């Protein structure tokens, strides 16, 4: 009992004939004094309250801090020697002799919380003798007042007097502990003879002899029953305090006691109920945990949840949720728990991902269906959450393996979501959980399977009402006579082994009509105290919707496979990991393999080795941008011959943009490749055949031009000059077609060498100024710089770009040719003042045979820029164009500098 927490004891202390000062053992602060104590030292009470022991020492008070610390440490009383002090009483300085006694005050657990200092003034012996009668009279008066106050204290209190420990005083609560017995005026061992030789007697003797208090919690005491006089085991929490007379000797004992027998019995019953509830909770197929307060302390957890968290009960109980599982701090669960406690709303989540970091640093991804339901405390306020969850990781992963059809499957496990404050408080709360659980639960008693309990959900599933409770299962559900359930229950009852089944089919009568239902079910045997099977707990989840959805998907998948076998293309499916799950009939016939062989090793072995790397890179890019990868590839058929195909690998994305599967479509284009090869061969042949007559015509025209110049015939000179330009143009076109043919056949050959790029610019510019006298060629090139390239092919690119600039700009305009060197690259710039290019045409300029549709009728086949781009790319360079329609164009290309 806390001395200063009872108003009646406050009055008792105030009326004490001794000076009393109470010091807090931890803070060393004065918590209480009476007027008698402060008057002894000539001070007022307010000057002491709240002061520390150190402050009192500085004020000159004779208090000893070391003694206080010793009393706290040893839990023993200390009597200090008499002290002579000079104090100021009523303006006069007096010398007094004071004795101080330091006594510990303890809690029921025996720890010292406070120290009481008793101060007694010691007067001269003659004065003591003269006033002894008065003091005794005053002491009797004070004791009488104390006895009256003790009757009001809400605890059993008795005062034992003398060495025979005679009951001097008892209050009503103490008398109620032994009703019908006369106590006052009798020695305790006479009034309560069953205490003779007991530990209680030994403790009383020890307190009386040593003057030290003793405390006991939940101590067993055997007392006679007032009715039958039989000895009973009763339990008390009590404290024995010595009472001192004016000479400082023990002359009695104070007893403060509470009977806790009923409380301990309730605790035992509570633990038994809690143990039963824990067993039942651990039988449930769901993971269950109760979390309390804003710091999310785990109060209760079942074995299924511990297994899911991979924790022991010691690591979990009483610990904050985020301290147990710090991995979940960045996931939504802590916020949802607090929201449920704050708002009272139920949170029900399906297929939530939960990520755990394993001891080796790997991430364990799981999926759960879970329900958060608010719990209220004894004060009616929300202070906790009941979490019930099912781990469905295996089912989610299985659903993912069905690729496109996974979205059509819903694996739904109904959650246990009950509202209860503390599961261990009463059996009625468990019944509430049992009745209101969204999972079908029933209890069958005995080998006849009498329906002892059935919650609302199982009655709904069975299609019955509460009227079947008390009936046998066979009578309540006659339609199951020819179904396997009664036989399964008999096996469980006989063997004691639980039965588990997923997607078990049942035909149950609903509104006079048999209804097909699929269940995930558990038959859990429950043993009695002797270990014999007495009951069977039935827990079932209706999964009809998921099963029907899966069957529908399987039907759709079979239909898809049938269609895929009918189309002429080769169709395949693969997981995001690349594992192929389907090849259609065309693929298998082409490869000459069965599905298993082709899945395990055949697909990549059929690819041409030169194309595997590009194919893998293309798949990575397709997965990143969500677009199909289209490529021309060679696959080896059953005869060992490589056949060209157009291969399209399309990623299928979910709503978050994540690849869920791949669909492949592969079409035979061998005939197209052969046609293209024949076309290239024809172009190459025609180009070679045309070059011989063109060369002869060019020679004859040059001879005719010289004769015309000698004859000074302007008309013929102009005619021959224009003819030579057309011959040169024809030669360029033939060379272009020949180069295109070489490119497509992979025979374009580069003869690279080191040369000064500025010298090449100077050489070609002299030709440009003579050849294109109609335009102003302006040069601005960098100093000497060496490149490693095919000199003739780079000159061909320059000729093509400058020729285009002349072709598409008016006579008399300027053409700027310049170079820049930086970052180990040389950039060549050709800028004209011509008609320009529309924005929509710029991206297609370098495509083969592409010509910009302009109003002017300028000849050409659209291969010059295509060839230029291929030549620059073959040199690991870059080419591009910029233009504004109507104001001119600028073409650029870059080459690496040696």
CATH architecture type of the largest domain: 2-Layer Sandwich
Mean pLDDT: 78
Structural class: alpha+beta
CATH superfamily of the largest domain: Histidine kinase-like ATPase, C-terminal domain
DSSP helix count? 28
Radius of gyration: 52 Å
Question: What's a quick, concise take on this entry?
Answer:
The protein has seven domains: 3-148, PAS domain (Beta-Lactamase, 2-Layer Sandwich), CATH 3.30.450; 156-259, PAS domain (Beta-Lactamase, 2-Layer Sandwich), CATH 3.30.450; 271-408, Beta-Lactamase, CATH 3.30.450; 439-548, PAS domain (Beta-Lactamase); 567-668, PAS domain (Beta-Lactamase, 2-Layer Sandwich); 673-741; 750-896, Histidine kinase-like ATPase, C-terminal domain (Heat Shock Protein 90). 39% of the residues lie in helices and 30% in strands. The strands form seven sheets. Strands 1, 2, 3, 4, 5 and 6 form a six-stranded antiparallel β-sheet that branches. The protein has a five-stranded antiparallel β-sheet with strand order 8-7-11-10-9, with helices on both faces.
Structure in words:
- The protein is of the alpha+beta class and 898 residues long.
- It has seven domains: 3-148, 2-Layer Sandwich (Beta-Lactamase); 156-259, Beta-Lactamase (2-Layer Sandwich), CATH 3.30.450.20; 271-408, PAS domain (Beta-Lactamase), CATH 3.30.450; 439-548, Beta-Lactamase (2-Layer Sandwich), CATH 3.30.450.20; 567-668, Beta-Lactamase, CATH 3.30.450.20; 673-741; 750-896, Histidine kinase-like ATPase, C-terminal domain (Heat Shock Protein 90, 2-Layer Sandwich).
- The chain is built from 28 helices and 33 strands.
- Strands 1, 2, 3, 4, 5 and 6 form a six-stranded antiparallel β-sheet that branches. A five-stranded antiparallel β-sheet has the order 8-7-11-10-9, sandwiched between helices. Strands 13-12-16-15-14 form a five-stranded antiparallel β-sheet, with helices on both faces.
- The model is unreliable at 1-5, 124-142, 404-427 and 854-861 (pLDDT under 50).
């Amino acid at each position: 009992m806390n001395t200063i927490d009872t108003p009646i004891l406050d009055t008792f202390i105030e009326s004490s004939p001794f000076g009393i000062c109470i010091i807090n053992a931890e803070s060393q602060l004065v918590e209480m004094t009476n007027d008698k104590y402060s008057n002894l030292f000539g001070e007022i009470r307010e000057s002491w309250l709240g002061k520390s022991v150190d402050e009192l020492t500085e004020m000159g008070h004779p208090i000893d801090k070391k003694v206080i610390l010793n009393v706290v440490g040893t839990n023993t009383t200390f009597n200090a020697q008499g002290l002579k002090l000079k104090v100021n009483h009523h303006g006069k300085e007096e010398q007094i002799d004071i004795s101080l006694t330091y006594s510990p005050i303890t809690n029921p657990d025996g720890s010292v919380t406070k120290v009481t200092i008793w101060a007694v003034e010691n007067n001269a012996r003659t004065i003591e003798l003269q006033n002894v009668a008065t003091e005794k009279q005053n002491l009797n008066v004070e004791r009488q007042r104390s006895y009256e106050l003790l009757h009001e204290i809400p605890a059993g209190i008795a005062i034992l007097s003398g060495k025979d420990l005679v009951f001097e005083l008892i209050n009503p609560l103490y008398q109620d502990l032994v009703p019908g017995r006369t106590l006052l005026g009798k020695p305790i061992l006479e009034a309560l003879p069953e205490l003779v030789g007991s530990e209680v007697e030994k403790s009383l003797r020890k307190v009386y002899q040593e003057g030290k208090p003793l405390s006991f919690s939940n101590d067993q005491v055997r007392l006679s029953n007032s009715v039958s006089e039989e000895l009973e085991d009763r339990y008390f929490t009590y404290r024995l305090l010595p009472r001192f007379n004016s000479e400082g000797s023990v002359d009695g004992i104070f007893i403060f006691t509470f009977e806790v027998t009923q409380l301990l019995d309730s605790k035992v019953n509570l633990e038994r109920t809690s143990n039963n509830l824990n067993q039942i909770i651990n039988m449930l197929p769901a993971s269950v945990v109760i979390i309390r307060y804003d710091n999310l302390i785990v109060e209760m957890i079942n074995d299924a949840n511990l297994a899911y968290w991979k924790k022991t009960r010691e690591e979990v109980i009483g610990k904050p949720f985020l301290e147990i599982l710090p991995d979940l701090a960045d996931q939504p669960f802590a916020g949802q728990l607090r929201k449920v406690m704050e708002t009272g709303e139920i949170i029900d989540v399906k297929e939530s991902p939960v990520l755990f970091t394993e001891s080796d640093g790997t991430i364990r991804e799981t999926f759960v269906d879970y329900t958060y339901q608010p719990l209220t405390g004894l004060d009616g306020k929300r202070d906790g959450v009941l979490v019930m969850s099912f781990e469905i990781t295996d089912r989610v992963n299985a659903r993912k393996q069905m690729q496109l059809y996974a979205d059509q499957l819903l694996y739904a496990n109904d959650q246990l979501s009950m509202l209860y404050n503390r599961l261990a408080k009463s059996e009625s709360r468990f019944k509430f959980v049992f009745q209101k659980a969204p999972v079908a639960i029933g209890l069958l008693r005995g080998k006849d399977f009498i329906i002892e309990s059935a919650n609302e959900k199982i009655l709904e599933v069975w299609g019955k009402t509460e009227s079947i409770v008390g009936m046998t299962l066979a009578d309540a559900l006659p339609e199951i006579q020819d179904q396997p359930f009664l036989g399964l229950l008999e096996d469980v009852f006989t063997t004691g082994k639980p039965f588990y089944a997923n997607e078990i089919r049942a035909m149950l009568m609903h509104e006079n009509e048999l209804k097909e239902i699929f269940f995930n079910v558990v038959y859990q045997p429950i043993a009695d105290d002797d270990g014999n099977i007495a009951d069977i707990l039935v827990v079932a989840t209706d999964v009809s919707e998921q099963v029907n959805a899966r069957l529908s998907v399987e039907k759709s998948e079979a239909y898809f496979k049938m269609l895929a076998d009918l189309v002429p293309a080769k169709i395949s499916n693969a997981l995001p990991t690349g594992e192929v799950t389907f090849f259609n009939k065309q693929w298998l016939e082409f490869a000459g393999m069965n599905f298993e062989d082709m899945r395990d090793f055949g697909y990549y072995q059929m690819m041409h080795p030169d194309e595997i790397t590009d194919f893998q890179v293309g798949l990575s890019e397709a997965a990143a941008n969500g677009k199909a990868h289209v490529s021309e590839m060679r696959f080896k058929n059953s005869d060992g011959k490589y056949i060209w195909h157009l291969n399209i690998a399309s990623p299928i994305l979910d709503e978050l943009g994540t690849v869920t599967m791949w669909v492949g479509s592969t079409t035979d284009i061998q005939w197209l490749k052969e046609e293209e090869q024949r076309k290239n061969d024809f172009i190459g042949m025609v180009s070679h055949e045309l070059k011989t007559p063109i060369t002869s015509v060019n020679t004859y025209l040059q001879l005719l031009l010289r004769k015309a110049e000698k004859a000074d015939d302007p008309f013929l000179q102009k005619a021959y000059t224009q003819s030579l330009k057309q011959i040169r143009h024809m030669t360029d076109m033939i060379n272009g077609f020949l180069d295109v043919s070489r490119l497509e056949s992979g025979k374009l050959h580069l003869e690279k060498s080191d040369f000064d790029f500025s010298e090449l610019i100077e050489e070609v510019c002299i030709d440009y100024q003579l050849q294109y006298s109609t335009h102003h060629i302006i040069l601005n090139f960098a100093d000497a710089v060496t490149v490693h390239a095919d000199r003739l092919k780079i000159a061909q690119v320059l000729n093509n770009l400058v020729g285009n600039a002349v072709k598409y700009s008016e006579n008399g305009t300027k053409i700027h040719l310049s170079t820049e060197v930086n970052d180990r690259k040389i950039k060549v710039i050709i800028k004209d003042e011509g008609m320009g290019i529309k924005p929509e045409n710029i991206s297609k300029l370098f495509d083969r045979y592409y010509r910009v549709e302009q109003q002017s009728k300028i000849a050409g086949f659209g291969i010059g820029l295509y060839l230029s781009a291929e030549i620059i790319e073959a040199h690991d360079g870059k080419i591009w164009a910029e233009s504004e329609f109507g104001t001119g164009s600028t073409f650029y290309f870059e080459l690496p500098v040696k």
